[in-house]
Amino acid sequence: MLNIVVCVSGGGTNLQAIIDGVAEGKIRNTKIVGVISNNTGAYALTRAENAGIPAFCVSPKNFGSREEFNNAFLNQLEALNPDLIVLAGFLVILPEKMIEVYRERIINIHPSLIPSFCGTGYFGLKVHEAALARGVKVTGATVHYVDEGTDTGRIIMQKAVEVLAGDTPEALQRRVMEQAEWVILPKAIDEIASSWE
């Protein structure tokens, strides 16, 4: 059984896709052992509680320094003892120690086809605004392993999504979520789980 912890900062639509994937048997051999958010108001925490999953908030606002927050975050992770950490819209730069401890065991979903529209400053609507400004005809999403860089880890899976005439950043964001993110994130977890001893 692959024990996963999902880290999320906002609404948790990708978390919901994972919860549904496990419930429907699309993600096999997997248990969500916890959800951690850095944001006390994240609806993702409510989604977790509704699904009977332990939910925790570790907010930088509650600590005097970044180092104190990083230590508290790592302690919470270690208490849950995950095999895999899934970053599903988690807007926190991970402490290097965490990347060292969980190397090749942290994955992230990014709302573009890496290497396009990724790296520092590219998150949320900014990714889709940049894609529309550049005039690309195809965008999508990428699941990748996390390393010390920003969106630089080894790619696991990608899915393309067509950009339509008249798209707004919000409309494009929704289509990328529905057609790519909610499809490939559960699929990537299932693939990792199927090879897990």
Q: What does it look like?
A:
39% of the residues lie in helices and 22% in strands. The protein is an alpha/beta fold and 197 residues long. A seven-stranded mixed sheet has the order 3-2-1-4-5-6-7, with helices on both faces. α1 (13-23) links the parallel β1 and β2 (30-37). The mean pLDDT is 96.
Features:
197 residues, 7 strands, 22% strand, alpha/beta
Task: Kindly summarize this structure in a few lines.
This protein has 197 residues and is α/β, with parallel strands linked by helices. The protein has helices at 13-23, 43-50, 66-80, 96-101, 125-134, 169-194; strands at 2-8, 30-37, 55-57, 84-87, 106-110, 138-145, 155-162.
Roughly how many Å is the radius of gyration? 16 Å
Global outline:
globular
Q: Look at the structure and give the mean pLDDT.
A: 96
Main sheet record: 7 strands, mixed
Low-confidence runs of at least 5 consecutive residues? none
Tally of alpha and pi helices: 6
Range of helix content: 25-40%
Which structural class best describes the helix and strand composition? alpha/beta
Q: Spatial order of the strands in the main sheet?
A: 3-2-1-4-5-6-7
In sequence order, what are the helices and strands, one letter per element?
EHEHEHEHEHEEH
Proportion of residues in β-strands? 15-25%
- First-residue to last-residue Cα separation: 7 Å
**DSSP E strands, number:** 7
